[in-house]
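Notes from hallway chat w/ T.B., transcribed later so I don't forget. T.B. wanted the structure written out for a chain they're using in a teaching module, and asked if we could keep both sequence and structure tokens in one place. Agreed to drop them here.
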Amino acid sequence: MTTGLSDKAFIRYSRQIMLPDIAEAGQLALTNAKVLIVGAGGLGCAAAMYLAAAGVGRIDIADGDAVELSNLQRQVLFSVEDINQNKAQCAQQRLSLLNPLVTINAIAQHLTSAELHDRVPHMDLVLDCTDNTATRHAVNQACVSAMKPLVSGAASGFDGQLAVFSNQAASACYHCLFPANHTSQQPSEAQNCGALGVIAPLVGVVGSMQAMQAIKILCGLQTSTFFMTLPMLSDLASNSQAADVGWQVLSIQPDPHCKVCAQCNSQADQASSSLSNQLKPQRASHSTTALPKRMP
């Protein structure tokens, strides 16, 4: 663990260190942070560039796909020379040139559920930059099990989504928002940018927002769980609506019947209740709260 910043690091990150909410302590937290990015497509490229530039000390990038010509419209880490080469390895080369002060590890494969459960506990935060529903749920399960924050992004057409899950006690998870057995609430495997298309700058917007939220979490500035949508299509449909278009933020309540996080939340509540009873055995609570509603 690094205990201080070098002179070179002070100069490189000076514009961030000047911010009172970041300062030297925040930059040091970023330097010591370990982040796993699952997916090196449009979202992953944008997020990885800003996390590396911001000085996140270790970034692991996992992707088993090779670069294709159609990727170059939006996946800005790659060039024509990278076609047919592994995305994670190409990203590692570019990011290492962007910032030699950070460590970039390429995982040139699609991570299985078992591999995610093995790797996630050793990280401080995970970014889901995939467009595969099964992978999204596998990443969520690993993060909930390890109690690691998850920043999930999605982009299709002109519309973007961003979700932040703290995965701490009594918090909602990705499965609460999009249950695996509720197919009407989530896209099919064919409904990704390869089938539906995506406007190039959108993945940059959402990926950059993922990096922003990750930095806030790593610096201790963000702890809540929330879901955001960016309906950019309405902006293009009518100029009269332009002033009304922006991020729409919704809070997420944990689903008490969630198959992924409900048991973890219940155990955390029991542990908290047990500790409270030990500290104040004479106190009894008879209050009740309404069951949280699941977001559609």
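Follow-up for T.B.: Residues 33-279 form a domain with the Rossmann fold fold (CATH 3.40.50.720). Might be a good example for the class.
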